[in-house]
Write a structure and sequence with these properties.
Oligomer: heterodimer
Strand content of chain A: under 5%
Number of strands of chain B: 0
Helix content of chain B: 55-70%
Structural class of chain B: mainly alpha
């Protein structure tokens, strides 16, 4: 079983290394990620939102719904801590 | 933090530092349009000032921020964010499309104001949540007696 998993890992690794040869070079301006919608943001964000920091415009305006979700995630993490740690404290009180 | 571990030296140093931390947090928040920064970073720095006060002085002079108010601040932050989105819907645009907000400015400036509004919401929410988690992790039951 161990030998079998080792062979499977080697096979998957080989496939991934083979596929990685077709990836665009790091930082290439011809890669799909850099040619689809990014140039639009870079060129128009100042005119759209009067904000020089493109990162802020993308984070809070173009992708505002995503950031709303992130804020809710942080609130949910705090509430989970409150439920777990707060409840543990209460049980000790009862004992 | 029920028991402080501050000495007089720590106390004096914290008194000196806290106003500058608060001021710099506000700078990071409001300068997020022009430099790295924004709501998440500003909120974490505000929370760090509050946590410093709690570490040095214990939770008694915790500026009135007990557990319930921390939760309320966290919820308030998310509500500010979502409320601005709903206000955009009420002004006849899509959710979180700040351009339609009824403000006496040019459209790009309205969008910048909308971004600032939601960043303030994020700051309040992150600050409340960070302080809440710190209080929960350091709240030792034996201190209640």
């Amino acid at each position: 079983m161990r030998v079998l998993s080792f062979i499977a890992v080697l096979f998957m690794g080989g496939v991934l290394f083979y596929a990685a040869q077709d990836l665009p070079p790091v930082g290439s301006d011809k890669s799909p990620a850099a040619t689809h919608i990014s140039p639009d943001y870079v060129e128009n964000s100042l005119a759209d939102a009067a904000t020089p920091n493109i990162v802020t415009t993308v984070l809070a305006d173009y992708r505002g719904f995503d950031t709303l979700g992130e804020t809710s995630v942080i609130l949910t993490a705090g509430l989970a801590c409150l439920i777990i740690l707060g409840a543990a404290g209460r049980k000790e009180d009862e004992e | 933090m029920k028991r402080p571990f501050g000495s007089q030296i720590l106390d004096a140093a914290a008194r000196l530092l806290v106003p500058y931390i608060l001021l710099f947090a506000l700078y990071v928040l409001f300068h997020g349009h022009y430099s790295p920064g924004g709501g998440f970073q500003g909120g974490t720095m505000l929370a760090s000032a509050l946590i410093l006060v709690r570490l040095v002085r214990g939770s008694t002079p915790g500026w009135g921020l007990d557990r319930k108010r921390c939760v309320a601040l966290g919820v308030l932050g998310v509500l500010i964010y979502a409320g601005i989105g709903v206000a955009c819907v009420a002004s006849g645009a899509n959710f979180l499309n700040y351009g339609a907000l009824p403000l006496p400015m040019a459209r790009p400036e309205i969008r910048a104001m909308g971004i600032l509004g939601i960043e303030i919401g994020v700051t309040i929410g992150v600050m409340g949540t960070m302080v809440l988690i710190f209080d929960l992790l350091t709240d030792h039951r034996e201190d209640h007696g």
